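User: I'm preparing a small set of examples for a lab meeting where we compare how different chains pack in three dimensions. I only have the primary sequence for this one, and I'd like the structure in token form so I can line it up with the others. Please keep the answer compact; I'll paste it straight into my notes.
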Amino acid sequence: MQLPMATNLYQSLADEMADAIRSGRLPVGARLPSLRGLATQRSLSLNTVIAAYRQLEDAGLVLPRPKAGFVVSPRLPEPTQSLRQAPSPPSAPAQQAMMARVLAAQQQPGIVDLAFAGPRGKRFYPGAQLARSTAQVLRRAATTVETYARPNGAARLLAQIVQRGPRLGLHTTVDRLVLTHGAMEALQLALRVATKPGDAVAIEAPSYFNIYPLLRSLGLRAIELPTHPRDGLDLDALEALLEAGGIAAIMAMPTVHNPLGGSMPVPNKQRLAALVNHYQVPLIEDAVYAELQFKEPLEPLAKSFDRDGWIMVCSGFSKTLAPDYRIGWLDGGRFAADIQLLKFHSSGAESRLLGDAVAAFLEAGNYEHHLRGLRRLYSDQVSHVRGLIAQHFPPGTSATQPTGGFLLWVELPAAIDAGDLFEQALAEGVVFMPGQVYSRGARYRHCLRLSCCQELDARFVGAIATVGRLANALQARAAG
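Assistant: Understood. Below is the structure token output for the 480-residue chain.
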């Protein structure tokens, strides 16, 4: 069959073969036609076929075999069960100790860091363009650095956040927003305005590891709710908890979850918004990865279904644009006025220079182009790393299929302790996030999180292979 005319022949060929692999017409282990044979059969150049096969390899769909060409990769299943593990006793010291081990390991020279959820490299941030925007703002308003910033003084940036909001179903206003020192301060302000020491806060499990020390620092108790790797927070469990009463707030990441990478289906977001409005319990919606969804147009936030302002949204530009600028923002909903006062009392204001520099970048239309490239890049990299996991990790391993972002949640066979695997990998110069830091106790002791936000070079690929080799050895020992 001849390919239809296309601007990009190698892309058309890659798409056709990817569809055959995913549909099962090309089964696992099947050998693909030789490069020259397929080029002759399709009347294509050899370079076109090479480019198509390389794209399939990058997506983790095929593997090169010495003297055998390319074969279809092993399939890596997704976790399909709700992560409703048996309750385990609280163990905050063990959780903190493991996190301290990770942070210390990341400082070691020569380490290959598969743990840090911070993109690294020029492909991930438009550093040169942002530097020009910053210099331009400084030239036009040199006295800015000699003047104290006023609360929400970066009016240009606030206007851009309002203008961009509808892409995520967020119809906000400047008076509902406050600029913060990164998204973590936004989360803290939202918690402080909605709770008091001793209150209970419902969170997802697994949940972003920094949530636990944040809650402890505010004297709050975490109530973990099971979370499905694809569908997100278990809404039946949440509704039962709301009906029973006793929780002051909810924290969740309905769109591109950390660490799972998935997003709640839109009907679930509608139900979540309806629940918090009915019970009048505030939801703090963490949306830091929401603009990195692989699907376009983007799916809406839960906030888009908020009727009475009970949902607060926390986000920022650290994951997508300017990590060192530490610009976050918070839509406070019905709590906006209290949040703005609390921000002023606690940390004053954010830099107007940096806010205006980001605003200038957004105003020029560069951000959306940058985001489209990031989405394609992260989608390809996540697929590639899933292929590496399928190739190197033990049978019985599964990994999430993210809907956005750059994080993968990996579930190992139950006999493998991710803590033991962490120590062995660290001894060989590799660090990853063990599942134990994403919940109290040991319920995710067989899980880990990998970040796919750096160059997938030979060191990175070798590190994945190292973790897989060690996991296979632990599996064999457990079975032996």
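A couple of notes for your slides: The radius of gyration is 24 Å. The first strand starts at residue 62 and ends at 65.

User: Perfect, thanks.
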